[in-house]
Amino acid sequence: MRVDDKVAIVTGSGTGLGQAFSWALAQAGADVVVTELPGKESQAEATAAEVRAAGRRAMTVTLDVTQLSAIQAMVDRVVGEWGHIDILVNNAGINIPKWAVEMTEEAWDKVVDTDLKGTFFCAQAVGKHIIARGGGGKIINVASIMGVVGYYYRAHYASAKAGVVNMTRVLAIEWAPHNIQVNAVAPGYVNTPLTKPMFEKREFYEEVVRRIPLNRVGEPQDIAGAVVFLASPAADYVTGHTLLVDGGWTAW
Ligand SMILES: NC(=O)c1ccc[n+]([C@@H]2O[C@H](COP(=O)([O-])OP(=O)(O)OC[C@H]3O[C@@H](n4cnc5c(N)ncnc54)[C@H](O)[C@@H]3O)[C@@H](O)[C@H]2O)c1
Question: What is the set of active-site residues?
């Protein structure tokens, strides 16, 4: 499960899961493009420093995945500086928890534009590059258990992540002739800056832990192995799949 000398882009990788994925891919031999939102350059630099400490090249790129022109500019820059892209980890995502009856158009659009539309157009830009250079690559979309089961307080997020799960299947089918494997990783609840405010509500945290057969929420490194696997030749015959890494949440 090595990705030696591959070029991997990990979106939204200044914190949380993206940071762990970047480090794990670097440990497995990849050079990593760390992308972050404008204003979060210092977090991107911290992740890049971890990649370099693992002995690999790191590039930081400022990217808001809801800005389609910025996505193409990022791909052009990576190809211009490093020649090619082999792996995309579509990790950037947000949640703005809300009850369905309190949902606003603004919250809906922000979550769906980032988690679904941004994920699609990053995949499209990288997919077009890989197809143009003759094929062969891996795209890993970060979905969520909320893409395959429901939970209250997150209709927009669950809809977007379910969209990611099915979009993954479509891209896998369309790009199979180009030897691009497209898969998703669906984490359960993980300790990251995204979930920190949710877990500050002690009752919610305890409810979540009670629901997990392995009896704890995940840590970012619990999810990273699945991403390295799907990025590696060990997964050459796996495509269109959503790999649940959830401590057993969806087992019942
Ligand atoms: N933490 C969990 O429990 C959990 C569970 C399932 C799925 N996920 C998914 O994992 C991914 C990473 O989440 P995390 O928990 O590490 O959260 P996080 O908030 O730590 O990281 C998300 C990153 O995405 C970046 N980002 C946000 N909007 C962006 C945009 N428009 N363009 C580019 N980057 C943007 C943020 O700056 C941040 O660095 C998300 O897609 C999330 O939905 C997380």
Answer: 157
Residues 227, 140: Cα–Cα separation, whole Å: 7
CB 20 within 8 A of CB 91: no
Q: Is residue 200 part of a domain?
A: no
* Site to substitute for ligand 1 among 68, 142, 194, 216, most atoms within 8 A of C-beta: 194
Q: What is the CA radius of gyration of the chain?
A: 17
Q: Structural domain of residue 50, as residue ranges?
A: 7-190+223-243
Whether 181 is in a domain gets the answer: yes
User: Under 8 Å CB-to-CB from 18, ≥6 apart: which residues?
Assistant: 10, 11, 12, 34, 47, 89, 91, 92
Specify if 130 maps to a domain: yes
Give the max Cα distance, the chain: 52
CATH of the domain at 34: 3.40.50.720
Residue 216 within a domain: no
Distance between CA 82 and CA 64 in Å, rounded?
A: 21
- Our mutation pick for probing the ligand 1 site, out of 192, 196, 221, 243, counting the most ligand atoms within 8 A of Cβ, is 192
Domain count across the chain? 1
Question: What is the pTM for the complete model shown?
Answer: 0.99
159 touches 113 (CB < 8 A): no
Averages of pLDDT over each 10 residues, the chain, 252 residues: 98 98 98 98 98 98 98 98 98 98 98 98 98 98 98 97 99 99 99 96 97 98 98 98 98 96
